[in-house]
Amino acid sequence: MALHSASVTNKLIFAPAGKEPHGQAEQFTRGVLTRSDLDPTSPIRQFHKWFAAAQRSGLVAHPETCCLSTASLPSGRVSSRMVYLKELDDQGFVIYSNFGTSKKARDLATNPWASLNFWWEDLERQVRVEGRASRLTREESQAYFDTRVRGSRIGAWSSRQSQVLKPTGGDSGDEEDDGRRVLDEWVKETEKRFEGEEHIPVPDFWGGLRIIPESVEFWQGRQNRLHDRFVYDKKPSAEGGLEEWTLDRLSP
């Protein structure tokens, strides 16, 4: 049971514990992380190791799922959304999305910094990535775009991501349409545009975004919230020099 009373009436949620409306949170007991467990020089290699372990475990349905956060300047207002990691290479972490009309596109136009957060609950692990974002080339984006099912390629062309969809039906409104009809019409237009064509080019406003890491933290849950945390920070290096990283343990 909770240490403090949950009978207060002004809180819709108070100290929830899984399926229980309130209680003490479960302990993290499934792992330990020490410096010797980590790659001494590369957070990319270390992430690849953890990602492969998550895939093999059978406990994480979609280890590629992560939260992408961006922030607009000068307001500093942050926005987040769930996305899929689609590529990892020695340069960084790649996701794909709309960069024409989306909120993330507006944020990145004023501030190139972004973060990713991976949470693998059943392994009691998370990874936080912070770095600068950079668009992939059209050729790179096309290579991935070609792997998508046709419906998803049509969808990428059709959607004006984050644009408000207003119901059709005139001034009186249309109870049978909440705005979805506009999107459906866009899809029909795109289907007609590419009818009979197997190859669909990637839209200019859509493609890959690489987060080039400056900081990567590996987190392993421990009892009493005394978690194991290690962070790789990129060292400033001379132009053309080898990439080097520091590795430090952080207080939980």
Write the topology of this structure.
Elements: H1 43-57, E1 65-71, E2 78-84, E3 87-89, E4 92-98, H2 103-110, E5 113-120, E6 125-135, H3 138-145, H4 150-158, H5 180-193, E7 206-220, E8 228-234, E9 245-250
Antiparallel strand pairs: 1-2, 1-5, 3-4, 4-7, 5-6, 6-7, 7-8, 8-9
Helix pairs in contact: 4-5
Describe the structure.
This protein has 252 residues and is of the alpha+beta class. The chain has helices at 43-57, 103-110, 138-145, 150-158, 180-193, and strands at 65-71, 78-84, 87-89, 92-98, 113-120, 125-135, 206-220, 228-234, 245-250. Strands 1, 2, 3, 4, 5, 6, 7, 8 and 9 form a nine-stranded antiparallel sheet that branches. A hairpin with a 6-residue loop joins strand 1 (65-71) and strand 2 (78-84). The longest helix is centred in the N-terminal third of the chain and has 15 residues, at 43-57. The mean pLDDT is 92.
